[in-house]
Amino acid sequence: MSFISVYFVIYVFIVNIVYYSVPVKYRKAVLLSASILYILLYSKLAAVLMLAAIVLSYGYGRCFYGNAAWCKSKAALAVVIVLLLMPLIGIRVLSDFIAPIGLSFYTLSLISYVSDIYQKKYLPEKNFGQFLLFASFFPQSVQGPIARYDKVSGELFTPHVFCYREFTFGWQMVLWGYFLKFVVADKAGIMVDTVYANCGEFQGVYLIFAAFLYSIQLYADFSGCVNIALGVAQSFGIYLQPNFRQPYLADSVQDFWRRWHMTLSTWLRDYVYIPLGGNRKGTFRKYVNILIVFGISGIWHGVGLNFLVWGLCHGVFQIVERFCIIKNKTFERIRTFLMVTFAWMLFRAENMGHFLSMLKNMFATFNPEAILDGDLYYRMGLTRLQTLPLILGIVLLFVTDYVHEKKKISIREKIAKAPMPVRWAVFLLGIMITLVLGTYGPAYAENQFIYGKF
What we know:
Blueprint: H1 6-21, H2 27-42, H3 44-64, H4 74-93, H5 103-118, H6 128-136, H7 149-157, H8 164-197, H9 205-235, H10 253-259, H11 262-276, H12 283-301, H13 305-320, H14 329-348, H15 352-362, H16 369-372, H17 375-379, H18 384-407, H19 411-416, H20 420-437
Helix pairs in contact: 1-2, 2-3, 2-6, 3-4, 3-5, 3-6, 4-5, 8-9, 8-18, 8-20, 9-14, 9-15, 11-12, 12-13, 13-14
C-alpha cells in the first residue's frame, strides 16, 4: 500500500478514527497495530527484515545494561552494527533489486540507537512494544525522516488527545505533499525521463533544461513524501523531525546539507564525521573527513561509480567553496544551485558513461530557440498546455519557500486565522487542483517516490 495510493489515504483516515475513539491508554496499541499491518500489507519480506533488525537492536540494548560484560565491548557493538548493515549491503551488491520498504532509513535509526546506548546517552527501552513502535511507525517507514530514539520516543509513547488544529494542520501538510508529488514532481519527471532515456537524441538546451527540471523533480518528490509522513504523524498529534528547510535557497553546499535531508546530514555528522575526528585534528584531516563522509553518503544512496562520484563531488564542493573570494548572497545562492544541479546529473544518470555522454551533448550545440518555438515541450513529452501546471507549481513551490525563508511566515498559520468558510475553501480548492492537474495514468501505481528505492 503505497503513499500515493488512494487506499493509503483511506487507511490513515480509518486509523485516525480508531485512534481517537478508543480510550487514551490504548492509543499506542492502535498505532503499533496500524504500523505492523501497514508493513505487512506493503511487503512481507520488508516485515521480516525489519523485525529481525528490531529484535537485534532491542536485545543489544537490554544486554548492554544486563550482566553480560561482553555486550559492553566495542567488538560487540561492531558486530551488531555489521549485522544491521548486512541486508543493506546485500541489496547494494545485488543491484538489480530494489531495497525493501524503509530498509535504509530504519537501519540508520537502529544504528544510532545502539551507538547511543553504547555511549550511555540514554537508557535502553525496556518495553518491546514501545521499541517496536519507534522503529516501525508507519508514516516514516517508507523513506524517513530518519528517527532518533531520544527525539521521537516522547512523541510516540505519549497518547495524544484530539486537537482540531493539529488534525487539520496535519492533513493540510499531506495535501501539500500530494500536490508536490503529482503536479510538480511527476510532470517534471515525464520530461526528465524522456531526455535521460534518449540522451543521444537531445543536445544543448534540452539537456540543460532536463538537468534543472531534475533538481526540481527530486526536491518536489522527496519533500512531498516527507510532508505526507509529517502530516500523517501530526494528524495523530505527533511531531516528527523536519527533513527540509528551503534547500535551494542555500548560500553554500555546506548550507545546502544543513537544509536537505536534514536527518541524514545530522546522522552522518554525529555517527561518522565526529567519530572520525571532525575538525579537531587540523585542516587537512578535516577535509579528508568531509570526503569520507560524502563518499559514504554516495554509497548509501546507490550502487555504481556515479553515486560515489556524486557524493565526493559534494565533498569537493564544500572544500573548494571555502576559498571563494566573492562574497555576495545572490551570487552564492546561484553558484550553490548550479553546483548541486550539476551533481544531480550524476545522481540521475544510469552510470558514468551515461553522465559523460549527457555532459558532452549538453555543450555540443547552442540552440536557445527551442525554448521560444514550443518544440522544447513537445519533444520532452508534454504539450505547452500540460506544461503550464508544472510551471505554476514550480513558481508556487519557490514562492512558498521564499515566504518561509525571508518573511518567516507560516502559511498554515495564516490560513488558520481566516474564517472557517475560507479555510475549507482553500483546502477543497487544493484537493481539486491536485486531482485535476496532477499526473496520473496507466503507470500511476508504478510511479513511486524516487527515494523509496534507496
